[in-house]
Structure formats: structure tokens, C-alpha cells
Amino acid sequence: MAHFAKLNDNNEVITVEVVSNDVATTEQAGVDFLNNLHGTDDVWKQTSYNTKGGEHLLGGTPFRKNYAQIGGYYDAERDAFKPHNPYPSWTFNEDTCRYDPPTPRPEDGLWYSWDEATTSWVRLYR
User: Fold this and answer.
1) Distance between CA 80 and CA 55 in Å, rounded?
2) What's the DSSP call for residue 74?
3) CA 92/CA 83 separation, integer angstroms
4) Which residues in the chain show pLDDT less than 50?
5) CA-wise closest residue to 4 among 42, 35, 37, 31
6) CA 57 to CA 29: how far, in whole Å?
7) H-helix or E-strand containing 17?
8) What is the pLDDT of residue 37?
9) Closest CA to 90 of 54, 124, 119, 121
10) Tens-place pLDDT, residues 42-76
11) What are the boundaries of each domain within the chain?
12) How far apart are alpha carbons 113 and 105 in whole angstroms?
């Protein structure tokens, strides 16, 4: 299945729809199908459900850096989808087009949540 993000005038993602690969044989074919279906002339960009941080999760070719998120943005200069910044202390990573915390999440197999007040990871389920 092919996924398409609908953009508003500010390139914000306002919805994501799925189109059969039989229909979306090219990106333009998918865009034409969606605009015909909705009777509009909206801006749609294809997005890859399996792409995150510039890597394809199944070993394929990454597409537009990240899967489009509603409320996120399409960056035309980078031809990439960017999520919204989750916390003021996090910084934009040019390579992944994602936001990174000031300190990495602990990798000890436990669950953590970000605490912006202390700019640190807090372990859940003590």
C-alpha cells in the first residue's frame, strides 16, 4: 500500500491516506487518484510507512527521511517530512530530520518518559 500526506498552505501534514499500489503506480498517479476521489486539487506527497530518521526499517530504500505525521511538516528544501518539535530543549538533527533530546534515552530495556522541567529521562513503572 502507498501512503500519501495531504499538506495545507504551510506544508503542515493534515491527513495521511492509503492508496492501493495497483492505483499508485507512481506518485503522480496516487496524487491524481486522491484529488479525483475528493474532487479537489490538493497538495499530496507520498510518504513511506517504513522510513524513520532516513533509514528504511525493513532494509529498503528510505523515502523522505520520515513517515509523515499529522501536525508535522513537509520540508520542500530537504524533500523530507519533519515531526513537530516535542520539547523546547530538543534540537533538530539535520541528518535524520528528527528532534534529538539533550541526553540519549537509556538503553537498559526499561521504560522512560522525558521530563522537560529537569531535561532528563524519568524511569516509569518503578
Assistant:
1) 12
2) E
3) 10
4) none
5) 31
6) 25
7) strand 13-19
8) 96
9) 119
10) 999 999 999 999 999 999 999 999 999 999 999 99
11) 2-123
12) 9
